Amino acid sequence: MVEPEIPNQDTTVNTSGRVEKGSSLGRDAWYRLKKNRVAMICLWVFVGITLLCYLAPLLPFIADPNETALDNKTAGPSLKHWVGTDHLGRDVFARILAGGRISLAVGFLATFVSMTIGVVYGTVAGFFGGRLDAIMMRIVDILYAMPFLIFVILLTTFFGNKLWLLFVAIGAVEWLTMARIVRGQVMSLTKMEFIEAARSLGLGNARIIFRHLIPNTLGPVIIYTTLTVPAVMRLEAVLSFLGLGVMPPDSSWGTLIKEGADRIVTTPGLLIYPAIIFSVTLFSLNFLGDGLRDALDPKTSKD
Predict the structure, then answer these.
(1) Residue 135 to residues 124, 125, 132, 193, Cα–Cα distance (Å)
(2) Per the domain annotation, does 32 fall within a domain?
(3) Range of the domain at 45
(4) Which contiguous run of DSSP H or E holds residue 170?
(5) How far lies 254's CA from each of 28, 103, 203, 233, in Å?
(6) What is the pLDDT of residue 66?
(7) How many C-beta atoms lie closer than 10 Å to residue 31's C-beta?
(8) Is 73 helix (H, G, I), strand (E, B) or coil?
């Protein structure tokens, strides 16, 4: 007697007898994300702002952000200067885009560094557990208790105001929450059957960590990463506003807001326009993070 053919796990058989291909988890998450109109609008807004900032030097209608024109100081919006000029005659819109390149770079790179450190640190702590986990988590608690601004002031005192100090200072604190999130996920994963099966096959700890545990924590990691980028950008803006971040001739959205705040009485546009772009970017990332949370973990969705 010939046994009927059993379809593999990637296919299903419908009522008409036709074999249909299954859908991956990533494809399902993208389908759920596309149904969230707010998240998709925020995604395209954020992509548009990012592309405009980084492609600005290649666009002929965008002025040089460092070109001064003292005979055209604090001018209003015009066809040449879309949102006017500052106190040195520099195009405000071009400076906003130039500042966006630095703010976005700090947000992306510092988040990537903190994500890498936090994921590896939290995975090791959650996988091995015991005394090692206790020691590693106490180190996290100590770093949480460090006064952030004093730490940055000490760094700038010894090394001066340099851009790489932003990555060091921000990276020293932003990976802590990521490590705790990943540790909790790993501690629950280590009790599941597929980890026991991997151990019974004789797989080493490194292979279990990087081939089985870390890929299964990507959902929470991606969600928290989209929320870490705006948090890092806010930290950079606060430091630049206090004079501890990006220094002239470079500029970020934080330094532009600081300059606008100093001249809000005479030229309020110097504060309003960078603040609007900065706020729209942060709101877009936060709403996108909420949409990714619902797409990757539909159990938390309110729908």
Answers:
(1) 12, 9, 5, 27
(2) yes
(3) 24-300
(4) helix 163-189
(5) 38, 8, 49, 9
(6) 80
(7) 11
(8) coil
Q: Which of 227, 102, 136, 121 is nearest to 175 (CA)?
A: 121
3-class SS at 297? coil
CA–CA distance, 101 with 107 (Å, rounded to integer): 10
How far apart, in whole angstroms, are the C-alpha atoms of residue 18 and residue 3? Answer: 18
Whether residue 180 lies inside any domain: the answer is yes
User: Which CA distances in Å does 268 have to 78, 102, 201, 223?
Assistant: 16, 23, 67, 36
pLDDT of residue 303: 46
Q: What is the mean pLDDT of residues 238-244?
A: 77
Q: 19-23, 49-53, 61-65, 189-193 — which is least confidently predicted?
A: 19-23
- Residue 224 Cα distances to 28, 118, 303, angstroms: 20, 11, 21
More confident residue, 240 or 42: 42
Looking at the 3D structure of the chain, how many domains does it have? Answer: 1
Of all helices (H) and strands (E), which one includes residue 125?
A: helix 92-128
Q: What is the pLDDT of residues 68-87, one digit of tens each?
A: 877 778 777 888 878 888 88
Tell me the longest C-alpha to C-alpha distance in the chain: 95
Q: Is 156 among the domain residues? A: yes
Whichever domain contains 99, its CATH number is 1.10.3720.10
Give one DSSP letter per residue of 237-285, joined into a string: HHHHHTTSS--TTS--HHHHHHHHHHTTTT-THHHHHHHHHHHHHHHHH
Query: Do the domain assignments include residue 8?
Result: no
Given a cut of 50, whether residue 4 has pLDDT beyond it is no
Considering the chain, what percentage of its residues have pLDDT values greater than 90? Answer: 9
